[in-house]
Amino acid sequence: MRSFQRIKAFLSKPENVIVVSLIIILIYLILIPMFSVVNDTFTVHSSELRRIKGTVAGDFTTYHWENIFAGKYSENLFYKPLFNTIMVALVTVFIALSTGGMFAWLVTRTDIKYKKLISSLFILPYIMPSWTLAMAWLNFFKNRSVGGAPGMFTAVTGIETANWFAYGFFPITIVLGLHYAPFAYILIGGILRNMDANLEEAAQILKATRFQILRKITIPIVLPAVLSTFLLVFSSAMSAFAVPAFLGSPVRFQVLTTQLFRTINGMSPGYGYLIALIMIVIGSLILTANQIIIGKRKSFTTVTGKSSNVSLVKLKWLRMPLSIATLFSLAAVCIFPLFTFAIESFLMEEGNYAWSNFTSVFWLGAGSPDIASGEPGILLNKHIYHGLWNSFSLSAIVALIAGTTGILIGYAVVKKRGTFLANTLDKFSFFPYLIPSMAFGAIYLSMFAVQRGIIPSLYGSFTVLVLIGSVKYLPFASRSGINAVFQLGKEIEEAAIIFGVSWWKRMWKIIIPIQKASFLSGFLLPFISSLRELSLYILLVTPSTKLLTTMLFQYNEKGWDQYANSIILLIVLIAIFSTFIVNKVTGASIDKGIGG
Amino acid sequence: MPEIKVTNGLKKFGKVVAVSELNLHIKDKDFITLLGPSGCGKTTILRMLAGLESPTEGEIHIDGKCVFSAEKGIDVSPDKRDVGFLFQNYALWPHMTVHDNISFGLENLKWNKSDIKARVHELLVLLKIESLADRYPSELSGGQQQRVAIARTMAPNPKVLFMDEPLSNLDAKLRLEMRSELKRLHLETNSTFVYVTHDQLEAMTLSTKICHMNEGQVQQYAPPLEVYNNPANLNVADFVGSPTMNFIDATVEQQIDKTISLLANDMHFTFTPNSESSVQFSQGQKLVLGIRPEHVELTDNSEIESIIYSTLPSGLETIVKVKFGNSLLSSVAFGDVDYEIDKKIGITFNSNKYILFDRESGSNLSLGTLALTR
């Protein structure tokens, strides 16, 4: 009886109810799928019956483990893609950090001109889906040797691009590197901007030279952030799917994600599940390392005080040329690709840039049997509108669920700070961040392909997309939720508790209105991310639930490049437009005013 | 010997004038405080002297050498000015231990290892932080961080030391303790200190000379007691001293020889300037009469009556507010005395340090004695 009373008292506090129910839900949506995928790596799947002799579907087997790690084909099946993945990720990190870091330094520490413009242009590649640049690369540099029409570069100059230049490792790293450079820019720029200028001035007064200051003060202080950026970019590059799929498949350059996609969709899902598991392990290891780095005792976050005006490095005569050159190179990366999409989408016959060859049929055509199996132009195409509607409604619902849950988590975790339950919930809500999108798709495929308990098989349903999206983007929302409530401090709410204001009213009238900007970003970030997401959803969509991004992928696979180009233009415009709206609404841009 | 001279200094941030008409002469071994409310330009001056900020106009000489001149295009960088700088937030390098923070400057000077070791140890002992040598700044308390910052700044024996509100982040007790340590440090190191603060008590107690700033301009540059007893204008008078000076609006009735009759607080006073060469007042001139609390003496045998409004006894002294006519006057009674509130008490004006300010310009017109006329 006493323990019953105790439970009743415990559950009379809203934060306890939130913590307990969310932990239970997240166990079901994150932890159990993990077991399910492990189980699937030891199970014979029906499509594998012919190869694993003398078994029936559902039998226990170590076939997948043996073949992946120590079989005849494991070289091509696993080790080579793994090696490719690691190399791609490493070079990507190098490109992203060096360009992002250089731009961050230019914008925060020198007197370069057009800082605002540079800053907002530089963020664009990150706002655009990563495969935008990949498609642009193909439009520009593709060659005849793989089949199909040559790209603009060849059409204009007559020079045939080499295979290594047009496809595979080289363009993948360039494209991914440029895509993640803004990420490095934001993180390093933020540190450089917030780093107390007094730290460098103190060294200067003690007669350190500029170089010594850089080597002994600036770099060591920025280093933990750089390392952390390194790991985050590495793990993102590792889980990238669309870019290697677009640029790698023409020359059969496989990485773990493309291999995962191939095997799960092909004849041996068991391999795919095992690759997913391996990716999850690597991802978790990397991000755990990141946590350790951030939490070191030398961390500089404790040093406070007013930071005075930073004395900017004067570029002198280099100032104008450098500013202009920077703007031009940014325009080449950010604006030019959009033109290639526009041009390609108007070409009747690919590779022919004569004026007579331009047509609006892929935008407005009614559809005729001799063009792409009678597919109508995308503005008249009901499939496109269907996909658009799916993308929008999915993203909106995902944002709503993730955002709301994020606020609740923020409230409950801060309120019960330091307790075991709060820490557990905090960790759980962050866990999806560690799982590469593609692998996450795989574990949901494994989890929801069959009926489990009272939950029916959800494969092919819209619900499973909503579930995976909400869980995958929960980390964004819960981070902003926790930060928002944490900043608020508990006194604000306690002042209302003393007046006897109810919990609902406290949330609606006090906590949410005060921190609405941060909470809003907890809704909008998932929305934008989901809108341009491909790898998370691609294993789970079916024709009735297709999304704009997965349609793009299919058109591209079929070689209907004009359709693909027009869709990509559509998606990019939607992404930029919605980001613009977000900035206007929340008043906080992604680059957080690094360009000042 | 280091001597600092600033002539016609001007600093603009964009269009905002931060400091103007700055002329300052800091002598060797001075302890100068730049005193003023926040945003008055005192930190900017300090940063200009150290070379962290370039003035828009003017010249700066340190030790006879021109380190900045807008006209001649000279701007010597901070590392070549041979100065030390103590930052308000200490600016300790978070990735270095206490020991490394202190030795950094010496390494830059290419001292040999054993000398560095000896010097660092000497400073650790001097500032009583030997046990902290291997800690990181984030593991220190505010007071400890401050000591490390001082040690780091002192390590190369700078002849000139600039300090930007070094005590403002400490708690009251520690601040008091550090004040006397700083004063000793000034004596022991034989260097010139320039010290920024908004705490008038700190400025009063520490410095050999106070440079009082307001809105980017020097209000008064004089020894502390001079600033206290003969403030240049209302602004300075109001800022310095705690409890603050009493101000009573007054109007000139007439002037006979030196003596001025005033109408203040619905009462008639006569004011006799101390100096021989007295200022001429015109009839009806609007003035402010300034009276330091300690020059309102409470006594039982005086005909001037007032009523006790409030008392704040601290043991050492009691701050008493009395109702005098239609205004409130602060007064200080020394020792552990207390008074009954709302009781009548007599007051006297026995000093010769009453001040007349011009109400419009605020400037100090005359110091003198005060008497109530019947």
Give the rounded overall mean pLDDT of chain B.
Answer: 89
Query: How many structural domains are formed by the residues of chain A?
Result: 2
Strand line-up across the major sheet of chain B: 7-8-9-3-10-11
Secondary structure class of chain A reads mainly alpha
Fraction of helical residues of chain B: 10-25%
Strand % of chain B is: 35-45%
Give your account of this protein's structure.
The complex is a heterodimer of chains A (596) and B (374). Chain A contains 27 helices and no strands. By secondary structure, chain A is mainly alpha-helical. Chain A folds into two domains: 11-35 and 376-590, MetI-like fold (Orthogonal Bundle); 73-298 and 315-359, MetI-like (MetI-like fold, Orthogonal Bundle). In chain B, 22% of the residues lie in helices and 39% in strands. In chain B, helix 2 packs across helix 3 (113-126) and helix 2 runs parallel beside helix 4. Chain B has 374 residues and is of the alpha+beta class. Chain B has a six-stranded mixed sheet with strand order 7-8-9-3-10-11, with helices on both faces. Chain B folds into two domains: 4-239, 3-Layer(aba) Sandwich (Rossmann fold); 246-373, Nucleic acid-binding proteins (OB fold (Dihydrolipoamide Acetyltransferase, E2P)), CATH 2.40.50. Chain B starts with a strand and ends with a strand. The interface between A and B is medium-sized, with 30 and 33 residues.
Index terms:
heterodimer, A: 596 residues, mainly alpha, MetI-like fold, 2 domains, 27 helices, 70% helix, 0% strand, globular, B: 374 residues, alpha+beta, Rossmann fold, OB fold (Dihydrolipoamide Acetyltransferase, E2P), six-stranded mixed beta sheet, six-stranded antiparallel β-barrel, 8 helices
Short description:
The complex is a heterodimer of chains A (596) and B (374). Chain A is built from 27 helices and no strands. Chain A is an all-alpha fold.
